[in-house]
């Protein structure tokens, strides 16, 4: 079995919503090691090296498909929760001025995969509330960036969040049409 086939089998699930969650989790987990490199490229090594602290969520994202085999609804919730908590952690790490909060928008979309109306509404609401928190509530960023570095990092985060939203939209559209993307 090829590596691609093994990854595809690991992320497969008969339930379309869970299959989508597994796919997204694998994409996020696989991209985990690259984000710090992008940050280093745009802000430099002096401050960018601390971006490796963003990789803490990577194994949790990669575990979602394994969890989905026995607890699919829990796995979908874990994906949403890890995404939300990781975004808040990164907001503290880089500061809200870095634009990292835009990653809460895909978390809102991921809430659509959760079972039950009340849980979905709560899961949609939490990231929205987090976006309303004033930047000063986060305190100083762990990694202090200059205005120019924040500008470059915001551009990176805007692009990355937009790509993730595009991926989610395409997968969700395919799921709603009843076919694999």
Précis, in short:
This protein has helices spanning 3-11, 16-31, 34-43, 45-48, 58-70, 72-94, 104-110, 117-132, 147-177. With 181 residues, the protein is an all-alpha fold.
Q: Helix and strand layout, with pairings?
A:
Layout: H1 3-11, H2 16-31, H3 34-43, H4 45-48, H5 58-70, H6 72-94, H7 104-110, H8 117-132, H9 147-177
Could you walk me through the main structural features you see in this protein, from its secondary elements to its overall organization?
The chain is mainly alpha-helical. It has one domain. Helix content is 71%, strand content 0%. It contains nine helices and no strands. It is globular, with a radius of gyration of 17 Å. The two termini are 22 Å apart. The mean pLDDT is 93.
Question: Which features does this protein show?
Answer:
181 residues, mainly alpha, 9 helices, 0% strand, globular
The mean pLDDT is 93
Q: How many separate domains make up the residues?
A: 1
The low-confidence runs, each spanning 5 or more residues with pLDDT under 50, are: none
Overall SS class:
mainly alpha
Q: Rough shape?
A: globular
Q: Termini distance?
A: 22 Å
Q: What percent of residues adopt helix (DSSP H or I)?
A: over 70%
Give the DSSP E fraction (strand runs of 2 or more residues). Answer: under 5%
Assembly annotation: single chain
Tally the helices.
9
Tell me the total number of β-strands: 0
Keywords: Membrane, Transmembrane, Transmembrane helix
Transmembrane segments: 21-43, 49-67, 74-94, 100-119, 126-147
